[in-house]
Amino acid sequence: MIEIKNITKTYSNGDITFTALKGITFTINDGEFVAVMGPSGSGKSTLMHILGALDTPTSGQYLLDGKDVSSLSEVELADIRKDKIGFVFQAFNLLPRTTVLRNVMLPLIYEGVPSAERITRAREALISAGMNESHFEHKSNQLSGGQIQRVAIARALVNDPSLILADEPTGNLDTRTGEIVLGTFQKLNKEKGRTIVLITHERDVAEHAERILFIKDGELIEDSKNHKQRIAHTE
Ligand SMILES: Nc1ncnc2c1ncn2[C@@H]1O[C@H](COP(=O)(O)OP(=O)(O)OP(=O)(O)O)[C@@H](O)[C@H]1O
Ligand SMILES: [Mg+2]
């Protein structure tokens, strides 16, 4: 599904240039659960933006389902993001005085999905993200950090994307809530066959994946199967 071939990314601000990715090559098959690890500044978010078609590499090739992403127009890229990819960012951008249910329905409203179907799909996504129904009508500024995280996951899932990209999704959660979120990803991966790429700098978190890629100074330094996959403690 994902084929990255010798990708580089150089940022230029005026005279200053910085190469954040220095030639990275790997393949991720459909239905894999992969963690990307590496120290701060190693290029993880840069890589995620490229995988998510939010940014383009400076050189190299990115094939998503056999399509060369580097050659697509802005409109085609937007369609891929909308149809195929669910993003979980660290900064969630929920609308504060809007209910949980409506926050999750937003992507469907933009897509013109009819109202009754929107509600059903948003409710299903929230339930599969581990959100308790009693919170569906809460405003997002009345939620705990872990609940916000689950709303963000639900919103990423509501379009039923085949690829889920999550950048430090458990970064600011306590261990227990983090385990619930990781359990949700494992379930989506095992039961629905979703492909998941999870960025983290914590080994404990990465060990929930089947495979771990290590990035350092913009280079892929290790790509290994995780033989002792941790099972999340859900509830
Ligand atoms: N827009 C930009 N312009 C210039 N340099 C950038 C830009 N975005 C990122 N960088 C640099 O590229 C390098 C990689 O950044 P990136 O955000 O990918 O790191 P990261 O591995 O996600 O780090 P963290 O764990 O802290 O989130 C960093 O040195 C960063 O300063
Ligand atoms: Mg980052």
Short account of what is shown:
By secondary structure, this protein is an alpha/beta fold. It has helices at residues 44-51, 74-84, 100-111, 115-128, 145-157, 175-192, 203-206; strands at residues 2-13, 16-28, 33-37, 59-64, 67-68, 85-88, 163-167, 195-200, 211-216, 219-225.
On the 0-100 scale, what is the average pLDDT?
Answer: 90
Ligand species: adenosine-5'-triphosphate, magnesium ion
Query: What is the CATH topology descriptor?
Result: Rossmann fold
Oligomer kind = single chain
What is the string of SSEs from the N terminus onward? EEEHEEHEHHHEHEHEE
CATH class value: Alpha Beta
The number of strands is 10
Biggest sheet: strands side by side, in what order? 6-7-8-3-9-10
Instruction: Please tell me how large the radius of gyration is.
Output: 18 Å
3D shape:
globular
In the CATH classification, which architecture applies? 3-Layer(aba) Sandwich
The CATH superfamily appears as: P-loop containing nucleotide triphosphate hydrolases
Commentary on this structure:
The relative contact order is 0.19. The protein is α/β, with parallel strands linked by helices and 235 residues long. The protein has 7 helices and 10 strands. Helix 3 crosses helix 4, helix 3 (100-111) runs parallel beside helix 5 (145-157) and helix 4 (115-128) packs across helix 5 (145-157). It is globular, with a radius of gyration of 18 Å. Helices cover 34% and strands 28% of the residues. It has a single domain (29-53, 84-225), classed as P-loop containing nucleotide triphosphate hydrolases (Rossmann fold). Bound molecules: adenosine-5'-triphosphate (ATP) and magnesium ion. Magnesium ion binds at residues 44-45, 167.
